[in-house]
Amino acid sequence: MFLIASDHGGLDLKEHIKAYLKERGIEVRDLGTDNGDSVDYPDFGERVGKAISIGEAEKGILICGTGIGMSIVANKFPGVRAALIWDEFTARMSKEHNNANVVVMGGRTLSEEKAERMVGIWLDSKFEGGRHQKRLDKISQIEDDIRAGRL
Ligand code: RB5
Predict the structure, then answer these.
(1) What's the CATH code of the domain at 71?
(2) pLDDT for 128 beyond 90
(3) Residue of 40, 66, 71, 72 best suited for mutating to test ligand 1, as the one with most atoms within 8 Å of CB
(4) By residue range, what is the domain housing residue 32?
């Protein structure tokens, strides 16, 4: 299951990306927001971050004005590797090196066409594993240490 959410700053781009995912045959669940009223991005970042963290979904996309706030929120959740991507290169790296399970974009910083290309690259790229897996294991260790009160 694929999740997507935005605040008001990311609403238009979210609609575009949803249509793109559907075109690719990817089932996507929209966790809001659903209109242009001003809302607080942590409320929507939490929905996706929590669902991924507890294993209810495998992948997600978050969009706010810049992508910054949503990144901060999503990365609070253990097991979430949320990558703020801004071009084709960072989209590819977010999968090949970081195995990002959430990508975050700025609705006010990207054109629809570019964002769509970036999502496609993220979906089509492969995690390289090897030395990058070792680094992800270190991130998991940090999460474990925080949970156990060692950090
Ligand atoms: C909302 O105005 C804006 O602050 C939000 O969309 C986001 O850019 C926060 O990081």
Answers:
(1) 3.40.1400.10
(2) yes
(3) 66
(4) 2-147
**Burial group, residue 149, by CB count within 10 angstroms (0-12, 13-18, 19+):** exposed
Mean pLDDT of the residues in the chain = 98
Structural domain count, the chain: 1
Rg (alpha carbons) of the chain, rounded to whole number: 15
Distance between first and last Cα of the chain: 33
Q: Is 11 in the pocket of ligand 1 (CB under 6 A)?
A: no
Q: What is the C-alpha to C-alpha distance for residues 62 and 69, in angstroms, rounded to an integer?
A: 10
- Using a 6 Å cutoff on CB, does residue 64 contact ligand 1? yes
